[in-house]
Give the backbone structure.
Amino acid sequence: MRRPVVVGLDGSPESLAAADWAAREALRRGLPLRLLYAFEGLPAEASDLPELAAPRYWAGRVLRGTMDRLAETYPQVPLGAEQIARPAPEALLAAEAEVLVLGNRAFSGFAGLLADSVGLATVARAPGPVVLVPATYAQGPEAGSAYHPVVMGVDTAHPCDEVLEFAFDAAALRRAPLRTVHAWHPRHVPSGHASREDAERALDLALGPWREKYPNVDVHRIVDDGRAAQRLLHASADACLLVVGRRIRPARLGPHTGPVAHAVLHHARCPVAIVPHA
């Protein structure tokens, strides 16, 4: 049985935009959608304390309102909802989602940066893909078209099947072109002598098997000089989705998002998918 698309809610404009994005993604994938509201709780034996009445009431109100709206807009999507009295990152990481969707508060000012610590903590530890959606994207070019591609960053030194598969699949589901970006510069190459042509050949080699698997996806490749995050942000200015990888580190090193993923999460104007890989 395939897992559902799961979206974390907290009543913010960002999380409501994430719920709409998640519903469209569930519809595309033919999956159910699960709405999850987590709040700081107390032990089970203290569950009847009045201190929990307010967060329970607010969680229920947000879930009911969102369920009603999504059921009307996306009647084909099976919906479920749950409120959990535990820290949000813990609840989200235990959700067993095919895709986990969260609101991105990177553009909400100082308070938004504080609140976004939940999203960053979740992204850094999630075992599967996490998509962060800004509130400004509520009416964005989600359907995908020749003018709104899926954009993917590719590290040709360490091409990752998980990232490539997610991006090709996302483009195929949206019938959108896939714009692949590799940031290249001779000083970043150990020999110091590699040419742009070498970088282009390496990108073609990484993309080759996936082009064969997804022959209907129109692939555009960009090999450009500069920092990876800057090139990705520039390439995704008109995108419906930006896909980047996150390397899974050993437990002793602790969770992290990586510099490229961290930068695009804070500056990209479109939804960003962070895909973990070995």
